[in-house]
Description:
Elements: E1 2-8, E2 17-23, E3 31-41, H1 43-50, E4 66-74, E5 86-90, E6 99-103, E7 108-109, H2 116-136, E8 144-148, H3 153-165, E9 168-173, H4 178-183, E10 187-190, H5 196-203, E11 208-213, H6 220-225, E12 227-236, H7 242-257, E13 263-267, H8 274-289, E14 297-302, H9 306-315, E15 321-325
Amino acid sequence: MNYKSIVVTQRGGLEAVQIMENELRPPAAEEARIRVLATPVCQDDIAIRKGNRPFLAKIPFTPGYACIGTVEAVGENVVDVAVGDRVAALTNYDSHAEVLYWDAQELVHVPESIDPAEGVTLILNYLVAYQILHRVAQVKAGDKVLIIGASGGVGTAFLQLGRLAGVKMFGLASASKHAILIEYGATPIDYRTQDFVEVIRQAEPEGLDFVFNGMGEEYYERGLAVLRRGGVLVHYGAPQSFSHFLLLVAKLLFYNLLPNGKKIAGYGTHRLGTDLFKEDWTALFELLQAGQIQPIIQKAFPLLEATKAYALLESGAVTGNLVLLAPGVS
């Protein structure tokens, strides 16, 4: 028996993406074989294909940063999951496929009542926002924050989770996407036509408590400019190249040495470890089941039509999330 996967065969555009057949094999020891139900499409899927990341997957590779699926076989010594379990994984690669092989200890159980399309957005985008808010920034009600890139998958997660946390939010987004920011109580700022430093200084002359930046180091100076003394800019998201990575590290060191009482903190999805992932995913599943968060999914595509999703994400016209779904999942 075979299964199909999306494979990037060279660095470049969509012409580098193909569908390939692979032979189905039994899982190795301590491994589970998962039939993928849903997997998100994120900026890293695009950037790594194009070569715009400092640490790249070796060609050929299958994109896909996360998934929810059903365990259909397990290898020897697997005790964490069983055949038939619904599980999720944070993978970095490999989940844009009909089948995923993964270390069983790295999987988290997903409640059967959760819709896979909605639930899979929690595994990456909501995890990033939740951990930055509650583990890095440790926000409290009344804190004032700026979300740079507030209309994408992580940005809309910040909006929903920030409202739950009781923080006052400002968000950068193009004018066509301001309605979603207003819906969640954020003050929208059009990064194309407005100077966000001037807008925030007029609205909050004492400065903000936090800036959440996933858009690049070019926002550092202006982000720091709107912080109060003692405020923190939290940077997440990978730089575009190894040279940019070195520049990012240098800027982090430089700005944190300035005697202005303001700091930059970095966040990476794998720094806090699997145990905290599982704890925070459980909290997010509970919020979703209680109706306290509602992932915004602009469009769902059949799993093997991933190139259509990649093209839409690259267009910049996406609000919220894009997901790929297995046949029969709606």
